[in-house]
Amino acid sequence: MYQTTYHRPSSVTEAVKMLGEAEDGKFLAGGQTLIPTMKQRLAAPSDVIDLRHIAEMKGITVNGRDVRIGAGTTHAEVAEHTGLASVCPAICHLASHIGDPHVRHMGTIGGSIANNDPAADYPAAMLALNAMIHTSKRALAADEFFTGLFGTALDEDEIVTAVSFTAPEKAGYAKFPNPASRYALTGVFVANRPEGVRVAVTGAGEDGVFRATAMEDALSRSFDPSALDGITISADGLMSDIHASAEYRANLIVVMAKRAVQAANG
Amino acid sequence: MGIEGIGARVTRKEDQRFVTGLGRYVDDMVVPGMKYAVFVRSPHAHATIKAIDTASAKAMPGVIGVLTGPELKSDGIGNIICGWMIHSKDGSPMKMGAWSPLATDKVRYVGDAVAIVVAETRGQARDAAEAVAVDYDELPAVTDAQKALEAGAPQIHPEAPNNLIFDWELGDSADAERALAGAAHVTRMRIVNNRLIPNAIEPRAALGHYDKAEDHFTLWTTSQNPHLARLVMSAFYNVAPENKLRVIAPDVGGGFGSKIYIYPEEIVCLWASKRTGVPVKWVADRTESFLCDAHGRDHVTEVSMGFDADNRIVGLKVDTIANLGAYMSLFSSCVPTYLYATLLSGQYEIPHIHCNVRTVYTNTAPVDAYRGAGRPEATYLLERVMETAARELGVSPAELRRKNFIREFPHQTPVIMNYDAGDYEASLEAAMRAADYAGFPARREEAKRRGKLRGIGMSCYIEACGLAPSQAVGSLGAGIGLWESAEVRVNAAGTIEVLTGSHSHGQGHETTFAQVVADRLGVPLDSVSVVHGDTDKVQMGMGTYGSRSGAVGISAIVKALDKVEAKAKKIAAHLLEADEGDIVIENGEVKVAGTDRSLPWLQVALAAYTAHNLPAGMEPGLKETSFYDPTNFTFPAGCYICEVEVDPETGVTEIVQFVAADDFGTIINPLIVEGQVHGGITQGVGQALLEGCVYEPSSGQLVTASYMDYTMPRASDVPSFLVSTTVTPSPSNPLGIKGCGEAGAIGSPPAVINAITDAIGNNDLTMPATPQRVWTALRKH
C-alpha cells in the first residue's frame, strides 16, 4: 500500500466535501475491493474517505412490503435481518453467500453496487427487484444505475446512500460460485410480480449484470422451472476465462435460473 | 503401550501454542537493528537484462542498500545447484544451467530475483524496489514442456540445447516392447499430471544476521531441513563455512516439500546482511509464494500396459516429459526419475517395465518435490491405467488388481525397488468392506432417481518412503547421505531432551517422538522435550521430507535409546547390586525383575551425573547419540475408494464417500496418523478437482497467481473420511514404521478421477476435474 490520508466523515455532506478537497480521493465503504487493490498497489488514492461511520447510511427498514436498506449496511446485517427475511428472503439468502464471514461483516451493499463488479451478487438482485438506488444527488432505477463492467451512473463525487424496493410476491437467487474466489461465476436472481417477472444475471456478461428477457417472458407466462425448458442462451457477449467458457456460462444461466425459480417457489 | 506410549491417541503437545497464536515463526523473530528486504523481481518470463540502475532507489527515504547480481558474483557467492546427478541414457551428465541467486544476464521466469532492497521499513523497501530501473530486452517465452522441446522453441539456458536437461531411462526398452507386442490386450493412455502450487500457510521467510564481532552468520529460515541448508550454503554457495553459520528453522507453518530447497532469498539475505551491516529480514507476500515457491508435478506421459489372455500384466512402457521450470531446484532431477520410475510396478507383478523420462527447461517457476514427489505421478498413471484396462477388459477393477497383486515378499521389481513387506489384498478387502462396494449399484440407482450420476473408483497405491539408505541413494546420484541422527539427553533430575535432525513443520514430532521415549522408559510424556530445527543445538540431521521422520528419524531415537537404556541398566545393576541382565525399566522405575527392589528413574539419572558411585571405568553422564542409516526404503501401501455424485446440469462433482485403508506399519499415534491421512487426501482431492496452475502460454505470466484464481481445497470440498489401517510392520527399521505423511496425496487423485469417469462414462478427463471440464466431458460423451 502506498501512503494515503485517511478521513472519517460523519455525514454524507461532509464526505462529499472531503472528496472535493482531495487531490485524488476515493470513497471507502466496506473496503473488500478497494483495500486489497490498494495493498497490491493497483490503486493509490491520495485520500481515503471512510463512509463506514455515517449513521444516516445505515440500517434496514421494512414497511409492509416496502424495503429500504442503507448503503452502509453490511452483508451480514442483510443476511440476518428477520423483518427483511419475512418479505424478501431471497436477498437475505444472497447476502449470506457473499464471500466468507469476514467479508460479510465488513462489506456493504452500497460498496458492492457502486463498484458493480461483474461477478458481484447484489447488482443482480437490484436489477431483478427493480430497486431504486438513492444517492447523495438523486434517486434512479437500477436499470439506469448499472451501465457496464464496473460502470455505474454515479458521478465521481456521488455516494450511494440507500437502496429501496417493494418486495415481490416471490423471489429467488441461485449462484454458481467461482470455485476459487467464490464470486458468482454465474448468478441469477428472479423476481415475480403480478405485472411480470424480472430475471437478472450476474457473473456471466461481458458488460456486467444484465436482464435475460427471453426468460422473463417465459416465466411471466408460467413461473415454474419447466417454463425455461428449451430456452437456450447465446454465448455471445458472455465472459470466458480459465474457470468457465462462454458456452459453459450460457448453460449455467439457464440452470441457475431454473434453480432460482425453484427456490422462489419454495 | 501405556496411555502415552507407542500406539496411544495422545493429543498434540504443540497445538496449544499453535491454536493460541503463540507459535514462533521466522517473521516473529526480532534482532536489534534489524531492517527489511524486498526483492526486485522480473515481470517478464524471459528477457535479457541490459542494465540495472539503482541510483534513484538508493536515494529513496530509509534505504540502506540496493544490491544486484554482479555484486553478489564479485563476492564469490555461488550458483544454486541441483544436488542429485542424473545421467542421460547416452551417458552424458544432466545439463544444468546456471542459476545465480540474483539474475545477472537474463531472467527466465516471472518472479526471477534481480535485486534486493534493504530499508528501514517494509514500505520503504517496497517503494524503493519500484524505483530500481531494470532495462529488459524481452525474449519469446515457452511454458509448456512439450513445446519447449520443439524445434525453434525459445532457448532458456545455453548449457541445455533444445531445453533438454536429460533423456533418461530405466528398464529394458526392447524387453518391454516385446512383451507388449505379444500381449492379448494393450491399454494405451495419455496422462497429464497437473502442475500444482504448494501454498503452505506460512509464506517463506528469511532473517539473515551477520555478526561482525564474531565473524559469524545466523539465518532464521522457513526450512524443512536446517542442517542441509547450512551444508549446501557452505559447501556450494560459499556463503560462510559451516562453523560460522548457524541455521535456525523455528516453528514452520507447513512445507509439503516447498521448504526443502535452498532458495535465492535466504542466500541473498545472509550475504546482504554482511554487505549492509544490518540484520536483514524478508518475508514473502502471497504473490511471491505463488510465483517463486517451487511448484510440483507437471508431467505429460504416454503409457501402454499389456495383458495376457488371463488378464495378467505382461509389460509396461512409459514415456514421460517432465517440466522442471526455469532452473533446476535442489532435488528436481530425482523426482521424475528415482522417485517416479522406481514405483511404476505399483502393487503388481509386472515382468517388464521400461520408463523413459525427458526433463525440460521452461519459462516457469522451478518444479521440485511436492507432497509425494514422483510417487503421486507414478500412482496416478498406474491406477488410471488399471481402472481403464478393467473397463476395456470387462472385468471388475478389484478383480484385475487382485489377479496382479504381488503376494510374496521380499519382491524384486524390474525397476530397482525391493519391496520388503506388504499385504495388498488385506487393504483392498478392508477398503471394499468399509465402502460397502457390493452395495454400490443400489446407491447408483438411488442417485439416478435424484438426477445425479454416481460413480465409484479405486486406487491401490504403493510408495517408497524414508529416502534412505545412504549407500543406495548415493549409487543413484544423490549428493548427500540420507540417514538421520538423534541424541537422547537424560538430565540429572531425570527429565529428557531428544535432539533430532528431523524437522517438524506440522507433523507433530514434539508429541510422537516423546511418545517413543515415554514408551521405552516409562516416564511421563511431559518430562520429554523434543529439540529440533537449530544447527547449534542439534548435532546434524537431514530433515523432514519423503515421509522419513518416522522410519528414519524415530529409528535414530530408538538406537540412541538403546544406548541410554543399556547404560542406565548398568548403573542400576551396580546400585542395586544385581545382575545387569535382570534389570528392567517399567513405569518410571528401574527394577530387578521379579523382586521388589527398584530405583526411581530420577535416581538413576542423578547417579549418572553425581558420579559418586558408578561402575568401575564408567564415564559420568547419561546422554547418547545415534546416526541411523536404514537397510531399505519403506513401502507404505493401501487402497482408497472414492464415491462421487456428478450433477449433470453443472458438472459439479461431490465426493460423497471416501475410504482409505492404509498400511503404515507400526503406528506411534493413530490420531496424528489420521490427521496426516486427512490432510493428504484433501491435498489429493485438491489436485484431482480444484488445483490447476495456469501460465499464459505466450507471455509466461502466471494466471493463477492468487486465491481469486487458484482453487485450494476447503473443508466443504471433502466428506468425513472413513480411514482405517492394516499393519504389516516394516522389517527395515527397529519399530517397523513405514511412514504416513504423503500417502493421502499419493493415493487419492486416481481414486477421485476413476470415480468421476465411472459416473460420466467418459474416460477422457484431465485434472483438475473442474465443473466445466466434467460438463464438457459429459457433453462429448
Automatic annotation (TrEMBL), chain A:
PROSITE patterns: FAD_PCMH
Protein name per its UniProtKB record: Molybdopterin dehydrogenase, FAD-binding protein
Residue intervals of the FAD-binding PCMH-type domain: 1-170
Pfam families for the chain: FAD_binding_5
Gene3D superfamilies per UniProt: 3.30.465.10, CO dehydrogenase flavoprotein, C-terminal domain, Uridine Diphospho-n-acetylenolpyruvylglucosamine Reductase, domain 2
Signal peptide: none
Keyword annotations of the record: FAD, Flavoprotein, Oxidoreductase
Gene Ontology MF terms in the entry: FAD binding; oxidoreductase activity
InterPro entries to which the protein is assigned, alphabetical: CO_DH_flav_C (IPR005107), CO_DH_flav_C_dom_sf (IPR036683), Diverse_Substr_Oxidored (IPR051312), FAD-bd_PCMH (IPR016166), FAD-bd_PCMH-like_sf (IPR036318), FAD-bd_PCMH_sub1 (IPR016167), FAD-bd_PCMH_sub2 (IPR016169), Mopterin_DH_FAD-bd (IPR002346)
Keyword 4Fe-4S: no
Organism of this sequence: Chelativorans sp. (strain BNC1)
Automatic annotation (TrEMBL), chain B:
Gene Ontology terms, MF aspect: iron ion binding; xanthine dehydrogenase activity
Gene3D superfamilies to which the protein is assigned, alphabetical: Aldehyde oxidase/xanthine dehydrogenase, a/b hammerhead, Aldehyde oxidase/xanthine dehydrogenase, molybdopterin binding domain
Keywords: Molybdenum, Oxidoreductase
InterPro entries, per database record: Ald_Oxase/Xan_DH_a/b (IPR000674), Ald_Oxase/Xan_DH_a/b_sf (IPR036856), Ald_Oxase/xanthine_DH-like (IPR016208), AldOxase/xan_DH_MoCoBD1 (IPR008274), AldOxase/xan_DH_MoCoBD2 (IPR046867), AldOxase/xan_DH_Mopterin-bd_sf (IPR037165)
Enzyme class: oxidoreductase
Residues in Aldehyde oxidase/xanthine dehydrogenase a/b hammerhead domain copies: 20-140
SUPFAM superfamilies membership: CO dehydrogenase molybdoprotein N-domain-like, Molybdenum cofactor-binding domain
EC numbers, comma separated: 1.17.1.4
Protein's name in the database: Xanthine dehydrogenase, molybdenum binding subunit apoprotein
The organism of origin for this protein: Chelativorans sp. (strain BNC1)
Lineage summary: Bacteria, Pseudomonadati, Pseudomonadota, Alphaproteobacteria, Hyphomicrobiales
